[in-house]
Each structure stands twice: as C-alpha cells, then as structure tokens.
Amino acid sequence: MRIGLLTEGGYPYVSGDARLWCDRLVRGLAQHEFDVYALSRSEHQEDEGWVPLSANVRRVRTAPLWMAEDDEVALGRRARRRFTEYFGELAAVLCEGPRAGDVPSTAGGPAEGAPTSEADRFANALYGLAELAREQGGLAGTLRSEAAVRTLERACRAPGAHRAAREARVPDLLAVAAHLERALRPLSLDWYEDDGLGAVDLCHAASGGTAVLPGLLARHFTGVPLMVTEYGVRLRTHYLTAQDAPPAVRSLLAAFQGRLAAEAYGRAEVVTAGNTHTRRWQERCGAERRKLRTVYPGMEALPFADVGESPDCADPDTLVWVGRVEPAKDLVSLLHAFAEVRKQEPATRLRIVGAPAGPEGAAYLGHCRTLAAQLFPDEAEGPHATGDNPVSFEEIGGPELPAVTDAHTAGAVTVLSSVVEGFPVGLVEAMLCGRATVSTDVGAVVEVIGGTGLVVPPRNPRALADACVALLRDPQRRARLGAAARARALELFTVEQNIEAFHGLYLEIVARAPVRRVLLDGAGAPLPFAVPAEAHVPVRWTAASPRLAAARSGSGRAAGGPVRATTPVPAQEGA
Fold it and tell me: Would you give the end-to-end CA distance of the chain in angstroms?
C-alpha cells in the first residue's frame, strides 16, 4: 500500500509537532510505502534538517508556510472575477454567524435534504479557489493582494455579518487576510496531479488545520480517500492561545478553523483522536461518531525498561520538569509553586529540562530565568562561599542528562504545569520510568494518568505546591504511584498498539475505497500489484446513506482511464 503522509511543522524535520510518532509509524509499517508531503513553519526548522528516513519513504516533497513566495501569476479579468466571487463567498461564511441547523455539536451531521448550509457554501468557495489556482498556476500573490483585503472588508460590512466582524478595523482586516493567505497556500502547490498525491492509495493527515488541506484537494481532484489524525483540535488551541487578539480577529479565525475542521471531518473516511478529550472536541466541531476512533500515541517502552524496573535511586529532594519551553507550559506558575514548596521543604531543588520552542520559547525561557533569579537569590553557606540557585535550567544531551530517561530519573517527582496540553508525551515518559507525577488538569492528562498520579487545577501555584510537598514527604506513596503508572503506560501507550491500530485502519479504508484507475508499465501493460489487494474485497460494501455515498465518490473528477506509472521522485525533492 502507498500512503501519502501529510504533515505541518513536524516530520520529517528534526524539530516540530508529531515528529516522533510519525517516524515510529513509518518505521513500524515497513511493508507499506510512504510519500511524505511536509509543510514547514520556519526557516530555522528547515535549516535543522530532517531525521534519518526509513527505507520505505519513497519521496519527500516540502513547501514553506513561513515564507510567501511570489508565483508571479497575473489573473485575467474573468479569473479575477471568479476569485472575487469565491473568496468573497468564503469570507461571507466566516463573517456570518452559524445558522440554526448548521454544523451540529452532536454526531449525525445535517439532515438529508436540508437547504444549502454554511458548510456547503464554505466547501464550494474552497474548492472553487482550488480549481482556479490549478488552472492559473497558483493564487499566492492574489491572496496577498489589496483586492483580497477589500473583498474581506466588504464581507465584514455586509448586512448579516455578526457584530465582531462589523467592528473590524483596518489592522484587524490585514491580520485576518494574512492568516487566510498563509492557511490557503496549499491551494497553489502542484501536489495534486496523477504523479503526486493522485498516485497514493490513501492520504493520512497527521494533524488538523492546514495539513488537512492537501488531503482535501487530493480527494477533490483525484478521489484519494482521506484519514485525519489529531492529538489536539486546532479550534480549541485557537480559543486558548488567541485570547489577547482583537475580537474581530479571534472571531473570524475561529470561524475559519471551525469550517475547515468540519469540512475535513465530513470528507474523511476515518477521523482518529489521540484521546477522549480530543474526540469530544471533534464531535463538537461536526465529526460523525461512526467515523471516530481513539488511537493513543505510541511510546517506545524499551529505553525505559531498565529505569522503570530498577529501585528508586533518584534524589528524594528534587522535582523535575521535562518538556519544550513555551508559554503554554506555564513555567511561571511552576516557579511560584516551587517558592511555596521551599517554604515547607527548604532542601528541595527544581530541575527544568528542555529546549525552547522557537523564538517565542527562547524569549519565554529568558523571562523564566529572570524570574527564578528574583525568587531564589543564589544561596551560600557563608559570606566567603559561592552561592547556588535551587532552580536549574538544562537541556537533554549534556554530560549530566544524556538521555530523556536521565532527565525523568533525576528527581523523585515529575511535574507537569501546562495550561494547554494535547496528549502529554512527557507524562507518559515519566510513567514508563516509574515516577510519581503531579500534573495540571488540562487536555488528556486525567485520561492518561488514570489515578496513578496527583492532578491539580491549572494556574494554581498553591495547589501545585501542596501536591508536590505531599509526595516529597511520603516515599512509600511515591513508590506505589510510580509502579501503578508504569503498569498503566505499558498496557495502553506503547508503540506496538499504536502501529497495529493504524495498520488496521489503513486496510479498512482501502478495502472500502473504489479502484480509481489501472496503472500501466513502460510497455503499456497493466502493472502487477499496482492496486492493493485490500481493494478487491469479495463483498459489497453498503453506504450508510446516499449522502455518504456521494461524499465518498469525490467530485467526480478522478481519472477513470489507465495511466502510466511514474518514476519515483528522489527523497530530496522540494515543492
């Protein structure tokens, strides 16, 4: 089977989201071929390079989201009119509030035979822009033009627009237009031909948001089935992280994220969530319950075996935090909580282990270092001794902490202080190490920890401090919780169960997908084994409804005749 893996800001780059589980998935399914289509988020990410690729990765194609490339496409009068029509319709959907009967908060979707909904209008506008971009060779420059901003402004000022949109000022319009241009850049890529995503058997989007768009377009143009995997819903992240943005910007971008998510859930054959918390958000955004599956991320348990099975030899007076340094991790609350811990247990130390996540993370790390210096002046035993701060900032890979296992075993208790969290990978690592944990109640933390650790409200330094002190003073309780946590992690969160689950979903989707075309070799003869055997199931699959059957059939633009097989593109190819 040939899988088109769609990523944004992650695999195959060294840094980024979903890098580890994508790499484990590709290596674990060595019997299948993978074509990776990656969207990068920064120049720094591209400069860091790629992880070593598995032998079953046939090609890698990349495109930047951090840089706006000028396609130098000049639209004619008719094309400009079509762009204004489609982009204006898309903007109008974002400016108008949801109507009764529109995208529901429960499973089931809109009723059959319902009038044209906002979701249908959004889809028509999106695919209209995609077809125009395909015909003209791209829309990158047009989406950045003054005409796009004026079209957005007209939609905001039109009758029926909600209050936040009507009150949008010029800076707000520019900010929204810039975000939409960035999010719609995949429309201008040349990934959707028969020798690109049209040649794969299945598109697997490794996250929501912009990464889903290439999969939607591949399905629209060539009928390739789509699967979406999310460990955190973008709409929820937007609500939590854009609180300081102007109301018009927050409202319009939330509408876009919600419409894009609903369209992806409606077109996908299967939607997987990394935890129940994410799954509930997917249902609220319109995902049908029958399409949803929960697949926990898989962790390699072997590197943690020796540590998890050995007696506790960590410093009993040390707390450890491990992760990426960024504002969502709320290290400020952790430092204030540690100040409370020190009042009750003066010998306690805190080791913060992690690298900053991008420029924002670097600035946040500097802020935390300054706060730590203010809260905890260097301590010295006498006037002639050198002081030492009880808080240390370290990174994995140094002589003291060469591996992540060393980081988790450096202390008696592992602490998670996040205010935004999807699936807490660092928490699972601590569980595999047999460590007692104190965590904030965000994301999937409660679902993951399952009673094997202490959970406190987020942004509550006093509660966080009390939980840490309770475990520091009770070594027997720490040992019991650590052993229970390791047993739970080995049962639910190993890479083996993750790979097995996705392999089964791949077979299920391809078995239900129709054979789209016959591939021919260089001599014009049918290419043996070009179509997966799973596509020839000797039963007749019945769609749940005519609407579902229409959705699975795509746009009717899939190539029906035989096409010649293409030569694999080298793994270093760019977009």
Answer: 23
Percent of the chain surpassing pLDDT 90: 61
Task: State how far the Cα of 322 lies from the Cα of 407, in Å rounded to an integer.
Answer: 7
**Residues contacting residue 30 through CB under 8 Å, at least 6 positions apart:** 54, 55, 56
d(CA 266, CA 287): 7
How far apart, in whole angstroms, are the C-alpha atoms of residue 315 and residue 348?
A: 10
Distance CA 295, CA 232 (A): 13
Cα distance between residue 189 and residue 402, in whole Å: 41
Residue among 66, 46, 61, 42 at smallest CA distance from 4: 61
Q: How many CA atoms, within 13 angstroms, populate the side-chain half-sphere of residue 454?
A: 21
Q: In 3D, which of 483, 413, 493 has the Cα closest to residue 452? A: 483
For 538, residues 6+ apart whose C-beta sits below 8 A from its C-beta are: none
Rounded distance, CA 151 to CA 184, Å? 16
Question: Which residue would you say has higher pLDDT here, 383 or 439?
Answer: 439
Amino acid (one-letter) located at 344:
Q
Instruction: Please enumerate in sequence order all residues whose Cβ is within 8 A of that of 52, keeping only pairs 6 or more positions apart, or say none.
Output: none
Instruction: Give the residue from 253, 248, 286, 294 showing the smallest Cα distance to 267.
Output: 286
Closest CA to 482 of 433, 436, 430, 429: 436
Confidence of residue 194 (pLDDT cuts 50, 70, 90): confident
Q: Is the peptide bond before 311 cis (omega within 30 degrees of 0)?
A: no
Provide the pLDDT confidence category of residue 473 given band limits of 50, 70 and 90.
very high
C-alpha 91, offset from chain centre: 25
**Pick the residue with more confidence: 97 or 294?**
294
The answer for residues whose C-beta is within 8 angstroms of residue 114's C-beta and 6 or more apart is 101
Computed from CA positions of residues 7, 9, 15, 16, in that sequence, does the dihedral angle turn out positive or negative? negative
pTM above 0.85, yes or no: no
